[in-house]
């Protein structure tokens, strides 16, 4: 399920945003710590989709600036008003236990947030939260490495009760996109850009249109782009559009990778079906693969990795693509002006070539030219 958080700072805007979000979201989160003139009764009466009531304190990244007693009182009111869900922080759950929670339909989400890192004791945190009487456990951390997402994936695989878990920050975006594949109870998406409630949260438009999130499931095949930077790339738009047109149960995501060796090792467990490779990893990734195509081996760089039954095999398509383009373009002169036209008659043998650059693509083109 996809949840859109409402972070309006007044009741009127909150009601407006809730109505808009309800047209596309499965669940709405009412961040009442943002709303200065909050009226819980009215907000809940106006809901058309299930609602999570959250009143986050500043120690957990929230905006509530009143006393702890006042904050808890609003959450207890939400339970009495039969909100669909109430999110309560792991260190405050004891304040809710005294209420007759089990006599009302409200489900309790017990949450843990870490805005600095993904801690080593994730399993212990999960055990503590799962034993707190929670209907749903929520563990959200900050990713300082792309491989932190794998740790969240493993945590979700061992959960025995419904669990919401993903990584925040730019490096955690993939765990938000792949929430169904990971096994998270839900993910969060902003109503629009600028309405994010946490770092790394993408918009509902991007989640639904670029990544086809509603069509994913646990069997969806994962593909992606390895590089750094990757945020500028249009590869996810191109590949996911093709997957949609061809009715493939697949998703293509960006992997911002610093340590390529660690990435290849840790992500084998996710059974990613294939990667595109861009700068700066086209050359450095070669030694971490199980096999490399003969041409790619001669070039010393790969731009494509295919998972063949658990074996990662590298290929280089830059070489063939670049040479085919050069062989299909001819320079012509007309009235003193030079232009280029497509043709099939260009032969590269004996031609002089200026090659600017010395990276993986340049190596591939140089190899192709030498072969011609």
Estimate the strand proportion.
15-25%
Overall SS class: alpha/beta
Low-confidence stretches: none
- Gap between N and C termini, in Å? 54 Å
> Looking at this structure, what is the CATH superfamily of the largest domain?
Aldolase class I
Biggest sheet overview: 8 strands, parallel
CATH architecture of the largest domain: Alpha-Beta Barrel
CATH class of the largest domain: Alpha Beta
Report the mean per-residue pLDDT as an integer: 92
> What is the rounded Rg?
26 Å
Q: What is the number of E strands?
A: 16
Helix content class: 25-40%
Order of helices and strands: EHEHEHEHEHEHEHHEHEHEHEEHEEHEEH
Could you give the order of strands across the largest sheet?
7-6-5-4-3-2-1-8
Q: Helix segment count?
A: 14
Can you describe this structure?
The chain is α/β, with parallel strands linked by helices. It has three domains: 217 residues, Alpha-Beta Barrel (TIM Barrel); 93 residues, Rossmann fold, CATH 3.40.50; 53 residues, no CATH class. The protein is 31% helix and 23% strand. It has 14 helices and 16 strands. The protein has an eight-stranded parallel beta sheet with strand order 7-6-5-4-3-2-1-8. It is elongated. The termini are far apart. The mean pLDDT is 92.
